[in-house]
Amino acid sequence: MNRIFYRSAKAAIVCYDLTDGESWDKAKEWILELRAHERDCLLYICGTKLDLVNENKYLRRVKQHKAQDFASGIGATYFETSSKTGENVDALFETIIADFGARPSNFELSDSIILHEKTSPYGSSCVGCPCWLN
Fold first, then answer.
1. CA pair distance 71, 45, nearest whole angstrom
2. Domains and CATH numbers, the chain
3. Of 18, 29, 43, 68, which cross-links 47 as Cys (Cβ 3.0–4.6 Å)?
4. What per-residue confidence (pLDDT) applies to 111?
């Protein structure tokens, strides 16, 4: 995953398919990469397609306790959800909101952004025009 997708992230949800072991392996790679670069990011691991697993337990390729133990070991929160039925989707987002709100540092303004006003060589009517931004 390109770092541009998660640079300075305050929270992240990494999803994988409960019925696909390869998606779990790939998700673990992304999770470890994210954790290595964004240590303060709230991290949520989400197994998807819970409805399929509930209908047929033999479709599950990742044991819940295995994923839960992995999440606990890296300080992440674990959920299993179904987009089809909506099961646990609200709980996931409510938890993220509560966790995010409990961290005062998430509301501090950064003074590291510096804006410079540019003037157009063609007058004020052309400000923002791609012809001079290049």
1. 7
2. 3-133 (3.40.50.300)
3. 18
4. 60
